[in-house]
Amino acid sequence: MRPEFYAVFGTKLLLDFHAYMVYNISMKVKEKIMKDYSETIEAIERKVRSVCGFFRSIATGFKNIVTWLPVIWNDRQFDQGYLFDILRFKMRLMEDFWKSDDTNVMHPEKTELQIRIARILLDRICEHSYAANAIMLLEEKYGHYTFEFEPSEGNPKFYRIVDKRSKKEQEEYTRAYKRSEYCENQDIEYLFDHMKKHIRKWWD
Length: 204
Known about the structure:
The protein is mainly alpha-helical.
């Protein structure tokens, strides 16, 4: 073959090899640029989510303060009734959440029903109407009775309660109050048994 052929053929090989190398290098550079770009975008997205989450958390915190302020303001430490008031308020908030469209589970209505049962029990406990309901018929029968007070013997600074009702009336009232106490205890036991059974499933 002529020398010109080898010169042309060699030149073509060099050009093809150069083109191949340039292509590979450009592809690697492109891949690195795209990888760096993707990582940068992901880092920015994480930062934005973090910042948004931070401000969302602050907004939720202020909303909680405003929402809970009346309950906390009236809270005291000397009676179990205040504990039931706090628990009832929390159940109302959770019930509203599970009624909303913000849940992600398949059947939120099941959880909402369980929480509603607990809230209804807490409504009854917090209203303290057991005794009033128990003696309602007795007051219709005997009329509303108000205890009388008289100075205590030996110390006029103190007074003692004087019950002038008949023995039969006193016995009927005693039985009524015992029934009311029994009903209240039943509701309290049912409430905590119900919560013990279902509370670990109250999450979204």
